[in-house]
Amino acid sequence: MPPNVLRSFLERIATGARPATYEEARLARDAVLTASPYSRGGSACLPRSLATVLVCRARGTWPQWCVGVLSSPPFTAHAWIEVDGVIVDEPMAKSDFSTFFSVSSKSVLQQSV
Tens of pLDDT along the chain (113 residues)? Predict the structure, then answer.
């Protein structure tokens, strides 16, 4: 799926959700990791982050979903979720990444106004 189509889809389903707390997002991520051993792999960041936002959405919340790259070489793409500017349960800090785009419940609300 092209990135712009995926982002548009996520913006639509994020509509009406309240922002997730860190704990809600962490619990959703833990549920994904428990249900899917594949999602624990280092190259599974995209399906893991997508599954996590979908679990959150099913529970009425939405963390910020992000796609970007490591800020310093080597080029490494990554997808993750964050709450209030804090990456949820990832080994690296937000400052380690440059974000290409993100989808949050707040950004969806701002776009629809």
Answer: 898 999 999 999 999 999 999 999 999 999 999 999 999 988 999 999 999 999 999 999 999 999 999 998 888 999 999 999 999 998 888 888 999 999 998 755 555 44
Q: How far is the C-alpha of 75 from the C-alpha of 4, rounded, in Å?
A: 21
Alpha carbons 72 and 36: distance in angstroms, whole number: 30
For residue 62, give the nearest of 88, 34, 33 by alpha carbon: 88
* Nearest residue to 101 via CA among 5, 14, 22, 7: 7
Annotated domain spans of the chain: 3-112
Q: How far apart are CA 75 and CA 15, in angstroms?
A: 32
DSSP-derived 3-state class of residue 79: strand
Could you write out the DSSP letters of every residue in 11-69?
HHHHTTPEEPPHHHHHHHHHHHHHH-GGGGSTT-HHHHHHHHHHHHHHTTEE-EEEEEE
